[in-house]
Amino acid sequence: MQIANGLFMLELSVPVMGGIDVIHPTLLCDENGAVLVDTGFPGVLPLIRQAMEQEGVSLQALHSVIITHQDIDHIGSLPTLLSELEQKLHVLATEIERPYIQGEKMLIKVTPEAIDKAVASLPANVSPEWRQAFRTTLENPPKGQVTGLLSSNQQLPYAGGLLVIDTPGHTPGHISLYHPASKTLIAADALVIHNGQLLGPVPDYCVDYALAMQSVKKLTALDIDQVICFHGGLYRANVNSRIAELAAAAKNI
Description:
The protein is α+β, with helices and mostly antiparallel strands. The protein has 8 helices and 17 strands. Helix 5 (112-120) packs antiparallel against helix 6 and helix 7 runs antiparallel to helix 8 (239-249).
C-alpha cells in the first residue's frame, strides 16, 4: 500500500503458533533503489518479495535494510535476504542492538523460560516435528552482519530524508523513524494499533515499560499525520492529539 511518495506499507499475513499474525514492514523507494524497514519472521521472504512486486518494486532493488530492534519478528528473514542478494545489502541498526542481531549475544527476550512457555502455548494439534522446529528456531535465532550503525537524530538520505528517533524500552536499542516529507512516523513497536485504536507499547513485550512510555513522550515533538505500526498497520486519526494523550498517561507510570 503506497501511503506517500516513495513510501509503502507492506502487509504480510504470517501463520504463527496456530493463528495468523499480520505484520507491516515499511518500504522506502527513490531513484537510488529501495530500503526495507524490518524483515519479519523467519521464512517470510516469499511474502516480502510478493508484497514488493505488487508495488512495482523488485527485490533486487533493495540496497539497504534498517532493523529497528532485535526481536525475532523483525530480524527473522534477514539471513535469507542476505543470501538471496548475495550479501550485497547494507544492514543498519543501533550499536546496542548490533550484537544481538549478529548473534554475538542471545536475544534478550529469548530466555530458556520464555522458550519453554512459547512451545507450551502451541495448539495441541501442532505436530511434534513442527513443535521441535519451533523450539530450534528460538534456540538458534536468525542473525546477520550489521554493516552500519544508527544513532539518535541521525538523518538518512532515503526517499527524501529519514530521521532516526531513539525510542528504547521495548528493547534497549529500539528505534523509530520519521519521514518529514510526508509527516509519517514508522513506529516499529513503540506504538501499536488494536481494534482501530492507537496505543502505547505493550507492557508484557517491553524490557523496560516505564522507559518505553518515556520514549512515547519524545514523539510529541514531531508533527505527525500518519503512523505505521509494525503490529496494527496505518493510523491517521488526529495522530498528534492521540500521541499527546498517551504521553500524558506516562506520568502515572
